[in-house]
Amino acid sequence: MTNQEICDVLRHIGELLELKGENPFKYRTYFKAVDTITALDVPVQEFVEQGKLASLAGFGKALTSKIT
Questions:
Q1: CB 33 within 8 A of CB 8
Q2: DSSP-assigned letter for residue 55
Q3: How far is it, in rounded angstroms, from Cα 20 to Cα 68?
Q4: Which residues, 6 or more positions from 67, have their beta carbon under 8 angstroms from its beta carbon?
Q5: Cα gap 20→52, rounded to integer Å
Q6: What is the pLDDT along the chain (68 residues), one digit of tens a residue?
Q7: SS3 letters for the chain?
């Protein structure tokens, strides 16, 4: 998947969580992840392949798991 495709999915998940009334911390994490990925100069796939996705700011176990 491209960075844009990943961002589209993460944004959609964030929006669904927001509409569901989830904790704002939870859905904002997805929106922040979109901002982080958008600012990258390299494909997210490189971070996944190197096992360094969790090194990105705000990328915890749950988010890293969903992306990988």
A1: no
A2: G
A3: 24
A4: 6, 10, 44, 48, 53, 59
A5: 31
A6: 899 999 999 999 999 999 999 999 999 999 999 999 999 999 999 999 999 999 999 999 989 998 98
A7: CCHHHHHHHHHHHHHHHHHHCCCHHHHHHHHHHHHHHHHCCCCHHHHHHCCCHHHCCCCCHHHHHHHC
Q: Is 36 exposed, middle or buried (0-12, 13-18, 19+ CB in 10 A)?
A: middle
pTM of the model: 0.89
Instruction: Give the position of tokens 């509409």.
Output: 19
Q: Are 4 and 39 in contact (CB under 8 A)?
A: no
List the Cα angle 48/26/11 in 5-degree steps: 60
Give me 57's structure tokens.
Answer: 């700011």
